Amino acid sequence: MDNIEFIELTTENIEEIGCYCLRSKTKSTGYQGKKGWLIDQFRQGLTYIQMLENEKLAGFIEYTPIEHSSRVVYGENYYVIHCLWVNITGKGYATHLIEKVIQDAKDHKKNGVIVVTNPTTSWTPSKEVFIKKGFVEVDQAPYGFELLVYKMEDAPNPYFPNDWEERLTRYNNQLTILRTKQCPYIDIAIDNVIEAATKLDIKAEIQLLQSREELLRLSPTPYGVYGVVYKNQLISYHRLTVHSAMKRMREVSVLKI
To answer: Is pLDDT at 126 greater than 90 in this prediction?
Structure first.
């Protein structure tokens, strides 16, 4: 029988246990940025739980109160799931991790639990496992984003803003990369975009979103922590290869001629 264990990361054990993502490159800027970000966010109520099967990492979940969330969503007294990942499928481990969040929300008398999904990228959790646990879809946004909620109380639904097109017009046609330190893979994604832009002789500007207020106001998608905008068009909100980034920028340039 498998031995299942849950470990919650804290400021005291993060050095010993480490983060789940990019754990093979602990000296990279992405990993170190994520670690520092987590230490700061633990003070704001963020929870990061790793699941172990027979002492080996099997998955993790990260969630936080909505007022400190990295997702562009509005609501009151909710938890927001940032990330859910399992590398051992077919054993219900994702469900077990979701149940941890739901129970925590009940214990802290939250209105419910929120998650943002998108079927076109692995950078957001899959929708189906949440639907099976009783989450319902309450809003949508461009580029395939879906807002799901599990409610414990008769409270107003959370919601996305509706000014997505306006957000894309704020950068004067310049290639702008908006980022936070929430995901360690963002550094790799940015390097690919910069390399693609250099090959096309396009100057890029990186803008670090340092507060939730900035994220809510400026992010081009509900994902919040990473977005690339060029000529008033969304280039990407997840990692692209250098070739794919070049292709997308060329497509946008043709549209604007």
So the answer is: no
Q: Which long-range contacts (CB under 8 A, 24 or more apart) does 248-251 make?
A: 249/175, 249/196, 249/197, 249/200, 249/202, 250/200
Would you state the pLDDT for residue 255? 62
Tokens 């997840």 — which residue? 238
At residue 120, the pLDDT reads 86
Sorted by where each starts, the structural domains of the chain and their CATH numbers stand as 4-151 (3.40.630.30), 164-255 (3.40.30.10)
Residue-wise pLDDT for 18-39, tens only, equals 998 888 899 999 999 999 999 9
- Of the pLDDT bands very low, low, confident and very high (cuts 50, 70, 90), residue 1 is low
Residue 129: predicted pLDDT: 92
Residues 225/179, Cβ–Cβ less than 8 Å: yes
List the beta bridge partners of residue 207: 178
Q: What percent of the chain has pLDDT over 70?
A: 98
Euclidean distance between CA atoms 156 and 159, whole angstroms: 9
Instruction: State phi, psi for 112 to the nearest 5 degrees.
Output: 165, -165
Question: For residue 33, what is the enclosing H or E element?
Answer: helix 29-42
Helix axes 29-42, 186-199, angle to 10 degrees: 140
CA distance 170 to 155: 34
* DSSP H helical ranges for 182-241: 186-199, 212-218
Three-state DSSP at 80 gives strand
Q: And the tokens for 83?
A: 């990330």
pLDDT for position 256: 58
pLDDT at 203: 94
